[in-house]
């Protein structure tokens, strides 16, 4: 959910940005691991994790929909 | 020799470590978060991360890729002994405080009596103050 009040602390914003970057890295890595793996079960797990982290990324990204304080 | 080889084991251990790191980062962010909705989202994400890390760990454990070192009897004995010592020290340090609290409960210090008497009606002579269990009790 975006910040309806348009208020976000500087710390929250920095943390949010860094976590979005972390989640994005995880998505890339888990997709890469899924392609590289030879164990089918592990490959499926990596794919599942990549989808899950994409979902997290999208959810968190909604918080960047911030209206500047007038 | 072949530690750098890309194997399923190494990839799985990397997954576990990445998820551990993600959980650590999320915990820090939750503790610093003021916005309730963002905090809730981080917490849901953290719970999901815990579940995923457990799933990866279980797979690694099944495959024999991740075998935590078990504590030996000597280590267990040492921790038990240290814990017992710690508990005894804590009991000893608490004991004088307990005794003092009980003593103060039965016999209020002179300064305290004077302080309490200053709040009583000066017209009420022979008033005695009994302090029991920390609760002042006034009687004529």
Radius of gyration of chain A: 16 Å
Q: Into which percent range does the helicity of residues of chain A fall? A: over 70%
- Tell me roughly what share of residues is in helical segments of chain B: 55-70%
Mean pLDDT of chain B: 81
Could you give a short account of the major beta sheet of chain B?
2 strands, antiparallel
Query: How many helical elements of chain B?
Result: 4
Note the overall shape of chain B: flat
How many strands, which pairing sense, and closed or not: the largest β-sheet of chain A? none
Structural class of the secondary elements of chain B? mainly alpha
Order of helices and strands of chain A: HH
Radius of gyration of chain B: 30 Å
For the termini of chain B, the CA-CA separation is 90 Å
Structure report:
The complex is a heterodimer of chains A (70) and B (140). The mean pLDDT of chain A is 88. Chain A has 2 helices and no strands. Chain A has helices at residues 10-36, 40-61. With 70 residues, chain A is mostly helical. In chain A, 23% of the residues are buried. Chain B has 140 residues and is mostly helical. Chain B has 2 domains: 1-68; 100-139, no CATH class. Chain B has helices spanning 8-32, 36-63, 73-106, 110-117; strands at residues 128-132, 135-139. In chain B, strands 1-2 form a two-stranded antiparallel ribbon. In chain B, a hairpin with a 2-residue loop joins β1 and β2 (135-139). The model of chain B is unreliable at 112-140 (pLDDT under 50). Chains A and B meet through α1 and α2 of A and α1 and α2 of B.
């Amino acid at each position: 959910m975006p910040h309806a009040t348009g208020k976000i602390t500087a710390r929250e914003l920095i943390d949010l940005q860094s976590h979005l970057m972390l989640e994005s890295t995880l998505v890339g890595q888990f997709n890469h691991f899924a392609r590289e793996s030879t164990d089918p079960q592990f490959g499926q797990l990596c794919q599942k994790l990549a989808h899950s982290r994409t979902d997290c990324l999208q959810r968190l990204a909604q918080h960047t929909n911030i209206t500047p304080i007038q | 020799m072949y530690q750098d080889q890309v194997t399923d084991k190494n990839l799985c251990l990397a997954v576990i470590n990445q998820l551990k790191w993600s959980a650590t980062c999320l915990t820090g962010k939750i503790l610093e978060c003021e916005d309730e909705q963002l905090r809730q989202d981080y917490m849901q994400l953290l719970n999901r991360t815990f579940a995923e890390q457990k799933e990866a760990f279980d797979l690694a454990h099944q495959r024999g890729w991740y075998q935590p070192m078990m504590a030996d009897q000597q280590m267990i004995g040492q921790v038990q002994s240290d814990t017992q010592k710690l508990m005894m020290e804590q009991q000893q340090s608490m004991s004088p405080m307990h005794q003092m609290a009980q003593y103060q409960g039965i016999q209020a210090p002179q300064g305290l009596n004077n302080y309490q008497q200053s709040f009583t009606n000066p017209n009420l002579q022979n008033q005695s103050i009994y302090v029991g269990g920390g609760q002042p009790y006034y009687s004529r």
